[in-house]
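Hi V.,

You were right to ask for the full record rather than a summary. Here it is.
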Amino acid sequence: MTEGARTGGRDALPIRPRAPTADEADRLANACDTPTEQLIVWTLLDTGLRVGELCDLDTKDVLWQQRQLRVRGKGGPYGKKSKVRVVPMSRRVRALLEHHFALREEFPVRKRRAQGLVKEVANRAGLTRDVTPHVLRHTFAATALQKGISLATVQKILGHDRLQTTAIYLNFTDTHIQEEFERKWSRRGCLLMPGQLFSDAERRRLGGFPAQVSHEDLVTYYTLTRSDRAKVNQYPDDAGRLGFALQLGTLRYLGFCPDDLGAAPGEVVRFLAEQLKVPPEGLSAYGRRAQTRTDHFLAVQGHLGYRKAGPEERERLARWLLDRALEHDRPLLLWQLACEKLAADKLVRPGVTVLERMVVAARRGAGRETMKRLAAVLDGPGRAPGPPAHP
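Predicted structure:
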């Protein structure tokens, strides 16, 4: 029976070919003897291209600056191979293509020869299971899903019209299930409560100063401009000027200002003190009245054009995060994207717990949306969802 055939009734999913394990994929990649074998096997493993799409590549299809391939795939409104999509390039694939297309404008082999070379490499690697270019496409998809790339993103990379087609890659092994449970259910031996992403230690780290600041960041974010100095010099005492400057540079650097200014890295305090010609020890006398720090931070926000996120801004951020969560499932990446979005919009980053809950809500919303899309194609009312697609 061919892969893609239906079994067990009209609504059964296509048979999924047994993809090589991660260890077998590494053995396959390491068994390549020639640049052409590497070009074929590594590109198939890292992109999920169909073998015909791979062999049709030429120099015009490589978007070097975007690190993407422009692929003409199956289907489309104007007949065969009229559907165009973009596929990300890994570093090793980019290096291989850069070397090859520096010498030639077309791919080195055609489809039948590429299929034969994959078989030869698999034999050399000692793999006993059947290995074809299409099996390597399944390997890419399964690996991407196991690494946390969302189902919707994998669907776009593979060029599937229907989410049902991509869903056949979801049957992880018991080992993958156990590893994901242990990785996501608890963190460093501490059980995380519902609605949490981070342990208490991680939350303290994200809400404070970093242990050290690189020289490049020090110069970029803590160098006082002429307008900065004019604002800072409005305050008569050394401690006030130094504390104000510290809050100013930190808002630029972190997008918020930690409560404990005394925990600021020494190199930051010294760098600002040298510019202001004040003793760095003076910071210890700053902000003895909490209201002073609050008033200064409001002035810093006004000077830099920042504002506190209100209900409307948070609602917009929640919608934006949901869209990102449909593309990326990794919580720390979503956290970083949210911080970058807030900084770009000149919004002060809310507290760790507030932003953490927003990321959790976005991931849950993305999960519900994914299940809803799957249900629409997998749970049709007693009828087959159409002819089987060819993944």
